[in-house]
Amino acid sequence: MTTIPEVEEGFWTRARRVLRLAIPSAGETMLHMLVMLVITYLVGHLGPASLAAVGLSWQISLTVMILFTAVGTGATALIARMVGAQDWVGANRVVRQAFLVAFGAGLAATLLFVCFAEPLLVLMGAEGDVLTQGVDFLRAVSSVFIVSAIMFIGHACMRGAGDMRTPLLITIVVNLLNVGVAWVLVNGVGPFPALGVFGAGVGSSIGRAAGGLLVFVILLRGRAGLRLQWGEGFDWSLIRRMARIGLPAAVDQVAHRLGMLVFVRTIAALGTVSFAAHQIALNAESTSFMPGWGFAIAATTLVGQGLGARDARRSERDAMLAFYIALAFMSVMGVAFIIFAPQIIGIFTEDAEVIAVGSTPLRVIGLVQPLLAAMMVFSGALRGAGDTITPMLVNAGSVWLIRVPGCLLVTLWLGWGLTGVWAVMGLDLAVRGTVMFVQFRRGRWKKLVV
Predict the structure, then answer these.
(1) CB atoms inside a 10 Å sphere around CB 10
(2) Alpha-carbon distance 162 to 153, whole Å?
(3) Which one-letter DSSP state was computed for residue 161?
(4) Residue 6 pLDDT > 50
(5) Confidence grade of residue 398 (pLDDT, cut at 50, 70, 90)
(6) pLDDT grade, residue 9 (50/70/90)?
(7) Helix (H) or strand (E) holding 76
(8) Which pLDDT band holds residue 85 (cuts at 50, 70, 90)?
(9) 162: left (phi over 0), alpha (psi -120 to 50) or beta
(10) Count of alpha carbons within 13 Å of 100, Cβ hemisphere only?
């Protein structure tokens, strides 16, 4: 096998390539975070019970991402490799198979979560008003999982081809619909009734339904060299290739989500005020994910395309540059969390007790932002190379060996409350970031065949 000679590139050439992918991805992530912040703002003023209902329901609904992650991760990695090798026929075969699997996964998720919304919330400790409102919200957002799957996996395909702009534009439409409908229906505007938490769920479902339809139509017409074409059924050999990459990512998500459910259940046991403070602090902290996830997505595409072009050195340098830029942004966010924690929490609630309880946890997580950047970007880089096993082992091991037992220790035995829980979460993120960095620098991912 011959290799393509390495061509030395200047810093600004590499930076432009990284930023061209990362900025739209970061923008998309920012929009997702902003819409959750707006929903938190709208619901937060209905009271702690409403805020807790949305928080619990949202955590449960996130488990559906397990079904979509396996397909999306495998599709992104394979398409990136094929685009790097200029194999557009193969890339479009991956798109077709990804959509067939997405339809089945979305249908299964819709049926599961609509039918079992109440028992799932009871399992999480919801009761009274939290349970009643949570069921309404969870059923509303679950009703459109079948089109949400198409949107999520379609975006993953486009990112593999290096098209970050189209997912960003679709996300703008989705979020405008989401916020607009929720704004009208949560409190009632004009002739529309005040539906409270259920109105927020309706806004989310309408936005996601529109996003899924847009992705479907755009890929039918063709975008970024990709086109969704019908004419053949399941290609099991190609699906198995996606599964080899995607299933470890799905197992990663299963372990993480189960750990997060225990984590959230532990916080819920601290009381409504603590859980409301946790939810607000979590949404505030999620703003720092914007550069992290944006550059992680860029690293996934860049590493995959570089390896597809047989240029591992380019893949490594691009991933490191993505990390350095994410590090700078997230460190600034960390400083802001430390200095302005009460003011940030106060944006979302006027409850003095919630502000007091949530401020210290937000300061704690501000300290580990640099290592959170490492965890995100290097996880994305490894997945772009097709190494989904390393992130699976690191994430699952850290969650179940550090976060879960640590949270039980600080709440049940030490009585440290929400601050102790967030200190354990910070330790978990720090360990994962350190290990991901070390594994990436070892370079075993350069030799993987997908």
Answers:
(1) 8
(2) 14
(3) T
(4) no
(5) very high
(6) low
(7) helix 65-84
(8) confident
(9) left
(10) 17
Dist. CA 265–CA 272, nearest whole Å: 12
Say if CB 43 and CB 124 are below 8 A apart. Answer: no
Phi, psi for 414 (deg, rounded to 5): -95, -20
Return d(Cα 94, Cα 88) in angstroms, integer: 10
Say yes or no to pLDDT of 15 above 80.
Answer: no
- Torsion angle of alpha carbons 13, 19, 22, 25, nearest 10°? -130
| CA angle, residues 368, 374, 379, in degrees to nearest 5 | 130
Kindly report the backbone phi and psi dihedral angles of residue 226, in degrees, each rounded to the nearest multiple of 5, phi listed first. -105, 145
pLDDT attached to residue 108:
86
Among 141-150, 248-257, 297-306, the range scoring the smallest mean pLDDT is 248-257
Give buried/exposed letters for 89-102 (b at 16+ CB in 10 A, else e). eebbbbbbbbbbbb
Q: Is 448 helix (H, G, I), strand (E, B) or coil?
A: coil
* Residues in a beta bridge with 223: 226
User: Token digits for 131?
Assistant: 């349970």
SS3 263: helix
Helix (H) or strand (E) holding 298: helix 289-308
Place of tokens 């050999």: 237
Identify the three-state secondary structure at position 223: strand
Question: Helix or strand or coil: residue 37?
Answer: helix
Q: Which residues contact 372 (CB under 8 A, 6 or more apart)?
A: 288, 292, 330, 429, 433
Decide if 95 contacts 79 (C-beta within 8 A): yes
